[in-house]
Amino acid sequence: MKEDFNDIFVVTGQCPAQQQLLDYVQGKLSAAEQHEVEKHVANCELCSDALEGLAAMPQKERLPVMVRQMKWQLLRKLRKKNHRRKWHNDHSQDYYMQLVLAVMAILFLLLAAFWAVHFMQK
Fold this sequence. Notes:
By secondary structure, this protein is mostly helical. It has a domain at 18-87. The chain contains 4 helices and no strands.
């Protein structure tokens, strides 16, 4: 997984920035800016969902802090999950290598025992 998770509210194409959405919900935008956000949200499901979620939050004045906390919690979980997956992949390869070596050792011992029994009978 790439380390591209520095900001999950990155401006993509024509989408409003995180701060613009927060300002919209807090009623800090001018009428023209509000209109632009509303026009975009009408055609963008992702931004519409984000705005709906932000609007449902209590204590609108604390939104920037709450969004930052949620973002860092999400990033921490993603990195932890990625680290766990990487650790598992690295160690599963070690496990398979050990398994192959053990099977080869057992086959070698069986072959040696077979030869010993075969030559002792003659």
